Amino acid sequence: MEIQNNFKINKINANPIQNTNKTNKPSETENNPEKVMAGLDSLASINRIAVTPKKEDFALNLSTEELKKRTDKDVLVTTEMLKPGAPEYEKLDAGDKEALKHLVKAGKILENIHLKLDNENNIPFKNFLEDKVSKGDKDAEMTLKLFNAQKGMNAIDTESNMVVLAKGMPEPEGKGFYPQDLGKEEFHNILINMLNNGEKEEVAQILNQRSVVVRNGDKLEALDYTEIYKEDFQAMADELEKAAKTSTNQDFNEYMKLQAQALRVSDPMADALADKKWATLQDTPLEFTITRESYDDTFSTSISENPKLSKMLEDAGIRVYAKDSLGCRVGIVNKESTDDLLKIKKFLPKMAAMMPYNDQYEQNIKPEGDSKQTMVDVDLLMLAGDCGAYRGGVTLAENLPNDDKMSLAIGGGRRNVYHRQIRLGTTPEKVQQKLDAVLDPEQHKYYNQEADHWFTIGHENTHSLGPTQGREKLGKYEAIIEEHKADMGSISFLDMLTKEGMYTPEQREQIIVSYAVDNFLKAKPELTQAHRVRSVMQTQFMIKEGAIEVNDKGKIHVNIDKVVPAAQKMLSEAVRVQLSRDVNEAEKYVNEYFVWDENCEKVAENLKAISKKLNGSIETPLADKLANEE
Ligand SMILES: [Zn+2]
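Above are the sequence and the zinc ion SMILES. Below is the predicted complex in structure-token form.
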């Protein structure tokens, strides 16, 4: 699970313009080259009809004026990863420097896999743009800049607008995971037919985390990521094996080899072994992760709303998983700031003991014993693919593997990775501007950017607490509730952590006020925008409990001592909903507090007035240089 920057705006699934203009879509029926695999004889008979536009069928969607606005440096804000000559890089041993070269090459390969999983037209459209740019087309150049920032043709911005870069080509409902012409109702019906036909194994493959679904006559068929992206995965594995030859840390090298193996074979156990090793890495000079997170698949999460299909799957013993989006992180572990992070570790059992209803479930972290959780703060060379896609926000930290992964079942732990360059991206001037716009001047002294990092530490660790089973039954509300739980845990434990000396009383106040302010958003989200919804829910509840007040000028005042008790109430509710395993309970809970009222609107107006930012972009100068070296 991840958390992002930008007033905690996270990954979003928004399809406000679904199913419109379908007839405008450039179309040509042919075998989709992205999905044709050499050497897969068993798949040769599959009827793989896909809609793949020719280059000349694409057209730019945004006007010159809109493109100029959206690529302005104050609107598309750049965050820079490590540069050539960075001291963090220079002080590495030669073997680790050499290994980094191969790691960024692996990351660059993964970037393309992400693009395919996101939308099968991404790469053809990118090629179209690059061709136009080479002929001097300025609009194409600006469109390409946006494409590279959001890493795809379609993405939401900070004000909840869906940005569509190719004319007549809105975001496909099933992303790149499902056939573009497949709707949810047909998806459900095909699965019902296949189950009636006794095709349990095939259905289970379609509903796992790691397959792209294609049509096969009137059925569907799953192609494992390691099969459909075989060439790319093999090339990545080659790079990881090269890195393992020169990196100076034996544990890291062992992980490299296990991860390479997981890319080469179609076997979830290979992933589990790689994940298990990865989660133990604490004292390594380098950081490399293939991130697998499942926020983007609305087809799987729609199944919980179909009682007939849900019952059939349950009877067949098939669990529904949302599909993984893939990302890649390459960095250098910052030892000093990692030591700060580790201070929370000894309190994890106490936090586990404070979780509501904890006699009713087993937690990843037990109230007694070793927490099996590592944590590192990382200076980044690159965030590629899903975890670096700037879509309203970008990943600030991640706690992996998620509970749907097999490594946890074979006794593996979890690892938190924090992204320094993302967190340090904002300037003090920008922070002051924001405070002037939205926070009671008396309380400016409590706002501290570093406190947002402390809040994030609590958030990530809370992901390792609470119920681990049955959360998928909450369908499209699963992610909202889980992220909400992590936020509320972070605040709930503050008094205990302050008493235990982890935070000073002053730091406690800073965390509370900074959290409350950062929860206000620039625009009303859609219910489909899972990760923004929870911020609105919390603000609504905090106002109801008298913990936050907003005056008629849209200025926030935080009643500091009321925040922790309110958070504890919400944490209880969140866990209760998770334990219910009932999508209707989740819906009721979310609807009760997901209310965008005039308080939210007044603060949003103030935030919009001071920030022109609509999206961001990550620049990776050192990684780009290394990727081009032999
Ligand atoms: Zn999270």
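The longest strand covers residues 373-385.
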